Amino acid sequence: HVQLVESGGGSVQAGGSLRLSCVVSGNTIAAYCMAWFRQAPGKEREGVARTPLGSDTIDYSDSVKGRFELTISRDSAKIAAYMMYLQMNSLKPEDSAMYYCAARPQPCTWSAGDFRSWGQGTQVTVS
Q1: What is the per-residue pLDDT across 12-37, written as a single tens digit (0 to 9) for each?
Q2: 18-25 sheet: strands from edge to edge
Q3: Cβ–Cβ contacts within 10 Å for residue 19, how many?
Q4: CA distance linking residue 94 with residue 76, whole number of Å
Q5: Apex 34 CA angle, 30 and 37, nearest 5
């Protein structure tokens, strides 16, 4: 069972930055794909960044490439837990959405329907 707890988000002016955090824990997560998704009102949930744990490979959607950065580190305070971050720079109004961290057994995909473990979501608003 994988648990994800998000924090961060908020409101910022266009051109600004925000950082989202996600604590990921579970006994089998070492073989998981970790990802960030977002969903704006009336739109489908879309993947923006993803990485297989244990890999140096990080993929970004074209809409955020060069502006967003996904990083992961071990949570030294807990066994079988990681911290995942999404640093968002040069934010645009079209980046406004509810952002979710998500996990699934590898391989990584971009399809939200393939992910069964989700954080609670955090709102990002860019004006």
Answers
A1: 999 999 999 999 988 777 789 999 99
A2: 3-8, 18-25, 81-88, 68-74
A3: 14
A4: 35
A5: 165
